[in-house]
Design brief:
Number of strands: 0
Number of helices: 4
Largest sheet: none
Number of domains: 1
Shape: elongated
Distance between the termini: 32 Å
Helix content: over 70%
Length: 130
């Protein structure tokens, strides 16, 4: 059975928006880190970017790395902004610009890692053909 990354991608977006709709969310244990919330935002949107990229790859839509970078970054940033603005209306939740920054960093770092792995695999394939 082939994994349908489009379905996983949509489910992940629903999870992001559902979790951000929970009033007074206390899902993260009391770590001794100052940036624990930012780490969760970073990971949440890194997974978003990975699923988005895997979906694009599976559907043969990655023809240009720059275009994929722009597309995933743009829609990821848009979702992050909408998510933070949406939290203005949830009791016990707040909007934080640094959450958007952490979200965007998660997206960008995942795109870079994805492209590094993809380029490495392409080089290996070329070497094997020789």
């Amino acid at each position: 059975m082939k994994i349908k990354f489009r379905i996983l991608f949509i489910v992940w977006i629903v999870i992001i928006l559902t979790v951000s709709s929970i009033p007074d969310l206390r899902i993260i244990p009391q770590w001794h880190l100052t940036w624990k919330d930012k780490i969760s935002h970073f990971v949440e949107y890194a997974v978003f970017a990975l699923l988005f990229l895997l979906m694009l790859k599976q559907e043969n839509r990655i023809t240009n790395s720059k275009k994929a970078f722009f597309t995933v970054s743009f829609f990821g940033l848009l979702l992050a902004i909408i998510d933070e603005l949406h939290q203005l209306f949830i009791p016990g939740r707040s909007t934080d610009f640094l959450d958007i920054v952490a979200d965007f960093l998660g997206i960008v770092i995942m795109i870079i890692v994805f492209n590094l792995i993809r380029n490495h695999r392409l080089r290996l394939a070329l070497v094997r053909k020789k």
